[in-house]
Amino acid sequence: MSDTGRSPAGRRLLLEWLLVAVLATAAAALATGSALLARADGAVYDALAGLSGRPADPGVIIVAIDDRSLAELGRWPWPRVRHTALLNVLAPMKPKAVIYDVLFTEPDPADSGLAKAMAAIGNVFLPVLVEPGLNGASLNHVPPAGGLAPAAAGLGQVIIRPDLDGVVRHRERCAAPAPRPLAEVVLGQTRPLPRAGAEPCVAELIPFAGPPGAYRTVSYGSVLRGEVPAEFFTGKRVLVGATALGMTDHFQSPMGGGMSGVELQANILDALSAGVTRAEAGTTWKLALAILPLWVLMAGFLTLKPAQNLTLAAGLGVMTLAVSISLFGLFQVWLSPVTTIAILLLVFPLWGWRRLAMASDYLKAEFERLGGRLDAPVANGLVADVVESQARALSGAISRMDALRRFADDILASLPDATLVTDADGIVIQANGPGEALLGSDLVGARLLDLLSRLEPIGEAGLTGTHPLALRDGRTLLMMTAPLRGEGGVRAGEVISLADATQLMATARQREQALQLLTHDMRSPQTSILAMLQQSPGLEPTVVGRIAANARRTLALADGFVQFARAEASILNREPVDLSDVIAEMTDELWPQAQQKKIEFVQQGCEEPCFAMGDRSLLSRAFANLFQNAVKYSPAGEEIVVALVREDGRVRVSVTDRGPGLTADEMESVFEPFKRFARPQAGGDPGAGLGLAFVRSVVTRHGGQVTCDSAPGEGARFVVDLPECD
Predict the structure, then answer these.
(1) Which domain holds residue 423?
(2) Is the pTM of this model over 0.85?
């Protein structure tokens, strides 16, 4: 619907809907591109990660520098000989790789011995210290001291950077020239490092195998004492690192509990070796998951009921969570549902608040509007709760509307004639008992034309105005229609009354026959008198003239009486009548009489069609009488002005002449039957005195009025006021 076709309340609803939609979309985009919901994202991720563990690789073993080893071998840092001793013990056991999670950045006199032990095994990997860069460099890496670096099978970084909530969920891959992650070096992986940019390192999710303690772990001291069987390390990847609480950081992991750095490296090595990767969805997918459910819910706000919207919002939240869980479990892709659910939880009450506020304002305005029309008291604010106050006012308004409806139903039921009420499409929405008796019991919901066809009318049944409806069974119904108007004067339906006019029509026919007989009996002698006068040339001319004048007056009286009687009693055949066309037709009819006196009709406002509901023949005769009077009493050579004006649903036709005018006493009785005013301009023939009475009768029966404004010597102005027809 176009905005112009909406009510003010509808336009406000749409405007606030757009505002909420835009703000919610902006909030979703902001939350997606920032760390506003990082903690909540992490909590959901940790829950899913804890449910998606896998068995730890038995080929990965941790040699732990634990509290027991420190107690036996001395406090940290240990001299190089301790590590040389460990490698010497491991060498004959032929491990697949030995990976140290211990930094050797400080030189030691025993470095050469350690280097020889490393070379003897041949597959020892050492970490590189990575620090913030100096002199413009993004990162600075410090290799192992002395000759350890050349003796190592490979060097790599072991950067651990917890998230904002202190939980380690990612490993770091830094751009060259920073070294490759140590686990990738051990496995010989050559996947390209990220390009240098604003951020020197890129975080990747770690697919943890399980909670702390998932990997087989032996004490450093136990290995040195030979307490571990030789085959225990054969073909295994051995990680050496600190687990003692007093010498290393313990990190929170998604799997729960504190996890040492060496165990974090074991998880990374295990996942890379097994080809298990976990990716984080890109920004585009995050935005799509956040915004699409939001706009589905926003569309529901415009089309669904509140209860349905609640179901829709809950369904969208569940669907979003299901999508996130499915992607994580099936494809190891992390797409957080938190932003979407948070936006849905924000928008639903927000829109509910705005919708409730708009409904409250609308109800308040309607109560104030209905207060005067229904005598309904508007809430006075004495009730503490606004909703309760408006609920009481609404209950009162509904009660009064119900009372009005019952009153209207009672009126309809009490009407003696068959009466139907239709909507704008001609569908019956109400009917009374006589209507059901006439047309049947299944009236409501039927089309009016279909119901009228049950009566078997002769000819087509009109649906406007008042007109007789002749039936094949000999009855005659008088069908009367009246329009129903809604807000703004828009047509909302019709009220149709069907009255049995059979007896009335019979009486009217008898009256018509009596009038015709009376007219014939009055006209025939007068016509004979006029004929005899024409055939008697020897009579005195003065006497002949007087006799002829009286005979013609009697004929005019008979015609006027018949017309007046028909105007008073005949059934109106109502139809839309173009008054502009009637005026033109009647002025043309009187043109010969006007030309005899060189009088001209001047028409004003008659260029466009202008309709009134009425009987065309009676209205035409009424205007003809007015024009005939104007011609009759106007001096020769003058103008008669006929003006048509529309105003406030009315049509006003004025006829102004420049005749002798009327006195105040004459104007009071000018529309009374048989009132005659002799004027020289009338040629000595004052007429029968029924012409203006006929005009008043016709206009009054059409729901209008006729007035006269005149003064002696200033002419006369007659105004006919009729209701306009759409």
Answers:
(1) 415-499
(2) no
